[in-house]
Amino acid sequence: MKRKLLDMAAQWGDVDAYNESALAELAEKMQETAGNLVETD
């Protein structure tokens, strides 16, 4: 999923820098959240 979001961000790169950065941030937040869900104590 992260790869798909980063691919979408790259497609926006030439059109709109705001959307590009928003999608990249979303990909990072999604990965963090997924990591937090997988962690066990």
TrEMBL record:
It comes from the Bacteria. This is Uncharacterized protein. It comes from Aquitalea magnusonii.
